[in-house]
Specification:
This protein has one domain: Alpha-Beta Plaits. It is 23% helix and 34% strand. The protein is built from two helices and four strands; from the N terminus they run βαββαβ. The chain has helices at residues 18-29, 59-69; strands at residues 5-13, 34-40, 46-53, 72-81. The protein is globular and about 55 Å long. The termini are far apart. Bound molecules: copper (II) ion. Copper (II) ion is lined by residues 16-17, 19-20. Keywords: Metal-binding. This is HMA domain-containing protein.
Amino acid sequence: MATSTNTVELHVKGMTCQSCVANLSEELADVTGVVETSVDLNPEGVSTVTVTSDRHLEDTIFKSAVTEAGYQLVGLSRTSLSLAGDQKAENGDCDCNCGRR
Ligand SMILES: [Cu+2]
């Protein structure tokens, strides 16, 4: 199995205290593939929830987990960290026809 680590940042509205944090963390922990969740709580606005998984997970999976826990997913951003076994040599090959004729 290829080891790749996927990190997704969820922007979640409606979390106000540590039990919200625990609540959502639990919900996310139930998602297959999720290995780690960390929450940067912002009680007055949008909290940032960083989810690390060992596979690619669809946006809709996160959305339903957040909704299930009773909060609102207002945004999502991905930083795909390919840590191992995914080093393709990109030699900057030119796609266009320059220099060919
Ligand atoms: Cu709470």
